[in-house]
Amino acid sequence: MRSRGSRSAIIAVLLLGALIFGGVYYAWNTASDIFQPVAPDGSGKTIRIVIQPGETTAQIADDLETKGLIRNALAFRVWARIRDLDTHLQAGGYTKLNSSMTISQIIDQLLIGQPDELPGVTIPEGWRIEQIAQKIATIGLVKFNVKDFLKYTKNPTQFPDAAKYPILKSIPEGSSMEGLLFPDTYWFPIDADARQVVNMMLTEFTNVVQQHQLGAQAQAHNLSLDQMIILASLVERESRFDQDRPLVASVYWNRVLKPNDETVGLLQADPTVQYARDSQPGTTKYWAPLQTTDPNTTPDSPWNTYKYKGWPPTPICSPGLLSLQAAAAPAKTDYYFFYARKSDLHNVYAKTHAEFLQDQQKYPPSN
What we know:
The structure is a single chain. This protein is about 45% helix and about 5% strand. The protein is built from 14 helices and 6 strands. The strands form 3 sheets. It has a two-stranded antiparallel ribbon. It has a two-stranded antiparallel sheet with strand order 3-4. Helix 2 packs antiparallel against helix 3 (about 75-80). The chain is elongated.
């Protein structure tokens, strides 16, 4: 007959075994569960993620968990380390990951699949069409063709999707898309061709104009949408600081819509003459300072605003949002002149030519 001590020891061993088994079972189920898909097969959502150059596995894991693609960021990091994901990952946009995928399947996709979108490329404010074409040609879009891009943007009637964009109907016949390719950071699909790139940039421009009601504001200031974009492009090239944009816009607005005896409707804008000069065949570099600002630089060009009155025929670059807003609602001033101080590049403004000359003497060019 066994003693009570023996029975207690056996029970204790059995209880300990049950606890260990339960703990192992729970741990196994928990570990197994966190590696499983967030959503059952067939009911998941496809979610786009962006992997930036230099982003760590830990950052990617946190992003995946936040967006609902995985259950547990730590589990992803452990499995990614085992699979050596850090050394094989390509930056870019991935658009085919689904919440019905397991962690292992997601890592497989990141390991063996090329990104669906190239890392974001930024098109700066103030660039002209040719500069945009040159930039996009360098980023690795496998189907992008510069000649097609220039054909579409310089001849909108040849763009297959022109009918989608009312703005293209408002520009003068024979004009290009200059000023209508919105400067921004774009994540282009890796297989995007020139047509798709132009569509993305025109769509962004259209959205910005509609979202900020720029057309209505321009109309309230006696400007057509096309004239507002032309003015915005001048503001973009003439403003180094945001506070200058509405004031620069006011100077050019006054010169065209409230001409006086001194300015007689001439904009006398250096960037328009630069644009005329740089539009000559064979030009590959743009916006170099003018050697002279008299009418003798490209004298026959309608963009020479030292010779021809009113707005130039088209915008001269792609203006950003702040320049568009400044052009749509210029400041109310009596300014007809401005001068950039060489010391800090801030503009000073004048009502008369005499004041303008005084500013030049007060803030002479630096040696």
